[in-house]
Design brief:
Blueprint: E1 26-27, H1 66-69, E2 73-74, H2 76-84, H3 95-262, H4 271-429, E3 433-438, E4 454-455, E5 466-471, E6 474-479, E7 482-484, H5 490-505, E8 509-516, H6 522-527, H7 538-553, E9 558-570, E10 573-576, E11 597-599, E12 605-607, E13 613-615, H8 618-631, E14 634-635, E15 643-644, E16 647-658, E17 663-673, H9 680-683, H10 688-712, H11 723-727, H12 729-733, E18 737-744, H13 751-765
Parallel strand pairs: 3-7, 3-18, 8-17, 8-18
Antiparallel strand pairs: 1-2, 4-5, 5-6, 9-10, 9-13, 9-16, 11-12, 14-15, 16-17
Organism: Carya illinoinensis
Family: Belongs to the TRAFAC class myosin-kinesin ATPase superfamily. Kinesin family. KIN-14 subfamily.
InterPro entries: Kinesin-like_fam (IPR027640), Kinesin_motor_CS (IPR019821), Kinesin_motor_dom (IPR001752)
Length: 788
């Protein structure tokens, strides 16, 4: 079933659960509003603003409505009944009774609205209070964070310095340890070399002593041999003397023998005696020869021994010389090794002193490191304390944010209810709702901060609803139902009109049209940018919502049939954009068919011979929209590269039947993209563009005349002055829900045109066109689509 109560107060999710009696009251005056939202958050009233008390669950907002309503208590059911109340018509021609009922009804609604406005004021004050508290808490939190960050940076820098110093000290310590180990290794090697040297020195000294001993013994032997040689020489000289003596004796003997032989005769007689002496002398001579041979042999042996002794002496002398040279070398190497040993000893002493100093430095550094670690522990404890304080502040901020969210939720709820009541009053009055959208600044605009002519007030009353224009130093302020700033996205805009689109499925006539100068973004608002899903316009999004809602309502027994038609009004001529046999002539040529606009007795509008297409999905409508966009008249001007030169009208007629309840509804959704108003001095239009501009400005001027007549409540409304106003007659002067988008360009050169558009929109917003009415009649037999 369609949403029957779409104009009722916006309770959250349309399902507000109230507390049990006797406190289930919304008291207008001196009672409080009690209720629980669906999301589980308790709705507590704010304290009295003037007194400055804190919030309390039992405090009630001050209200001036008590004097007017007399302390009347309204429950949620009574408010819903008040909103859904239909005027009792005993006599439909008794206008005074109807007027009195309407005045009474509006008075009660004003009381409710006044109470809600006061409650909204309290909510806003409390929100500001919470925002201030939140800002102060955030400032404290930021200061704490800054302090923590500074402390943390200081501690980190100290830790980094300590770590760097510790690392450098460790590196130095490792290097010193390595040097120490290398020195120890070299020292041990030097000690081993020294020991080896001492061993070799000892062995060499022993060998030297042994060699010296051998030399001494050899010298002794040489001396003894020399003595023996001298003795042998003496003995040889004595033997030579003896041999000489023997030679002399032999010569003397021979002389004597000769003398004896000479004197043989003389000595014959003495022969026997001489023979005896001769044998004795021969025996002594043989003994002497034997002694001589023995002495010769002994001399030869002694000579051999002497030669051997001389060889031994030479060998020993050579050994002594070798040993002497070795001893001198050993002495020199010993001196060199002793010098090196002294140097190594001094190095070892220096290394030991360096190691001792480094050990002292390491001890000092360890002490510094321990103190730094203690400082780090102290800083960690202070950081933990700061962090706990920060967590407390964070919890406080979260609590304040939760309270702010609750206040914002209550404010949003009150704002939704205010909007609903405001819309209800507007619908009762029959006003046209107006939304203002400002086009974003384009790179080609060349607008600086000093050159901006648009601003948006931030006061509570005008926030999101007001816009200011500065022209020639004068400020002009306007207030509409909603103002969208340049950074507003397409989906955010569609959220604001989604309920209005939903009304078409509920059986209402809905009309949304975009108005503004050329290049202000009307076509972008209605159609979007092709090929970009996130930039789809209101028409594609509305169709998607309608078909999605149609699908979701099928389980409830609803069946819908939908028909689409699209036309444009070009130079005061209606063109069918879905026609398959459009004239192939130029853009200025008149269509072969003459389309006539007719109104029936029920307020519905029909266009004769217009192509009507049955649609079953959003894709079919998208295809038709693309076809219509290609057929639409566009042109290039100095203000817009691709300017729409006609008024585009998209119409979707909805016929729904509920098979279970046999309820029937008939709704119409009209989405209109008007051609842009432009000045000839700026657009530079000539030829065909000039005729188009004149036709556009004429139709928009007729629309302005109709708005002026409606605002003044004149008896005659000039709907027939143009095809556009005559086609929009049910939307402007009937029982339709109508919304106008006024599109504004932020360029300073367009300030005058923007001011004219805003003034026109303000007049439109003040027009009363009648109360919307649901159409529950049967589907007409005529298959042509009505625009009413």
């Amino acid at each position: 079933m369609a949403n029957k109560n779409q104009n009722e107060p916006p309770f959250p999710n349309n399902n507000l659960t109230t507390a049990k009696p006797p406190s289930n009251k919304w008291c207008v005056g001196d009672e409080k509003m009690v209720g629980t939202a669906n999301n589980g958050r308790s709705r507590q009233a704010f304290s009295v603003v003037n007194g400055g008390q804190d919030l309390g669950p039992n405090s009630a907002p001050a209200s001036n409505a008590g004097s007017e309503c007399g302390g009347i208590e309204l429950t949620r059911e009574e408010v819903e009944a008040l909103l859904n109340e239909k005027p009792k018509r005993k006599d439909r021609f008794n206008l005074k009774e109807r007027c009195d009922n309407m005045v009474e009804y509006i008075k009660r609604l004003k009381l409710c609205i006044k109470w809600f406005q006061e409650l909204e004021g309290h909510y806003i004050f409390e929100q500001e209070k919470l925002l201030n508290a939140l800002e102060s808490a955030k400032q404290n939190c930021d200061e704490m964070e800054v302090l923590m960050k500074n402390k943390e940076e200081e501690l980190n820098s100290i830790i980094l310095e300590l770590r760097k110093s510790y690392a450098s000290l460790q590196d130095k310590f490792m290097k010193e340890e390595l040097d120490k180990l290398a020195a120890m290794d070299s020292l041990t090697k030097e000690k081993e070399a020294r020991l080896n040297f001492e061993r070799t020195q000892a062995s060499l000294s022993e060998e030297l002593a042994r060699a010296q001993r051998e030399l001494l013994s050899a010298n002794q032997k040489i001396s003894s041999l020399n003595d023996m040689y001298r003795r042998l020489q003496d003995y040889n000289t004595s033997l030579q003397q003896y041999n000489g003596k023997l030679h002399t004796d032999l010569s003397t003997v021979e002389d004597e023998l000769k003398r004896v032989e000479k004197d043989k005769a003389t000595i014959v007689e003495n022969l026997s005696m001489l023979r005896g002496q001769l044998t004795l002398s021969r025996a002594s001579q043989d003994e002497a020869i034997k002694q001589k041979d023995a002495l010769v042999n002994e001399v030869a042996f002694l000579r051999v021994e002497l030669h051997q002794v001389r060889d031994d002496r030479d060998r020993l002398l050579s050994q002594v010389q070798i040993l002497t040279t070795d001893a001198t070398k050993y002495k020199e190497s010993t001196e060199k090794y002793s010098v090196e040993l002294d140097i190594l000893t001094t190095k070892v002493n220096q290394l030991e002193m360096t190691c001792s100093s480094q050990n002292n430095q390491i001890v000092v550094l360890k002490n510094q490191l321990s103190t730094a670690e203690e400082k780090l522990q102290v800083s960690d404890s202070s950081a933990v304390e700061t962090r706990t304080e920060f967590e407390g502040q964070k919890k406080l901020i979260n609590e304040l944010q939760n309270r702010l969210a609750d206040a914002e939720f209550k404010l949003v709820e009150g704002e939704m209810l205010r909007k609903k009541l405001h819309n209800t009053i507007l619908e009762l009055k029959g006003n046209i709702r107006v939304f203002c959208r400002v086009r974003p600044i384009l790179p080609d605009d060349g607008i600086t901060t000093e050159g901006k002519v648009l601003s948006y007030p931030t006061s509570v009353e005008a926030l999101g609803r007001g816009i200011d224009v500065v022209q020639n130093g004068q400020k002009h302020s306007f207030t509409f139902d909603k103002v969208f700033m340049p950074d507003t996205r397409q989906d955010d805009i569609f959220v604001e009109i989604s309920q209005l689109v939903q009304s078409a499925l509920d059986g209402y006539k809905v009309c949304i049209f975009a108005y503004g100068q050329t290049g202000s973004g009307k076509t972008y608002t209605m159609m979007g940018r092709p090929g970009h899903l996130e930039q789809k316009g209101l028409i594609p999004r509305s169709l998607e919502q309608i078909f999605q809602t149609r699908q979701s309502l099928q389980p409830q027994g609803w069946k819908y049939e939908m028909q689409v038609s699209m036309l444009e009004i070009y130079n005061e001529t209606i063109r069918d954009l879905l026609s398959t046999n459009r004239s192939s002539s130029t853009e200025n040529a008149v269509s072969a068919k003459q389309y006539a606009i007719k109104h029936d007795a029920n307020g519905n509008t029909h266009v004769s011979d217009l192509t009507i297409v049955d649609v079953r999905s959003a894709k079919e409508v998208s295809f038709l929209l693309d076809h219509a966009a290609q057929s639409r008249s566009v042109g290039k001007t100095q203000m817009n590269e691709q300017s729409s030169r006609s008024h585009f009208v998209f119409t979707l007629k909805i016929f729904g039947v509920n098979e279970s309840t046999e309820q029937q509804v008939q709704g119409v959704l009209n989405l209109i993209d008007l051609a842009g108003s432009e000045r000839l001095s700026k657009s530079g239009s000539t030829g065909d563009r000039l005729k188009e501009t004149q036709a556009i400005n004429k139709s928009l001027s007729s629309l302005s005349d109709v708005i002026f007549a409606l605002a003044k409540k004149e008896d005659h409304i000039p709907f027939r002055n143009s095809k556009l106003t005559y086609l929009l007659q049910p939307c402007l002067g009937g029982d339709s829900k109508t919304l106008m988008f006024v599109n504004i360009s932020p360029e300073p050169s367009s300030a005058g045109e923007s001011l004219c558009s805003l003034r026109f929109a303000a007049r439109v917003n003040a027009c009363e066109i009648g109360t919307p009415r649901r159409q529950t009649n049967m589907r007409p037999s005529d298959s042509r689509l009505s625009y009413g």
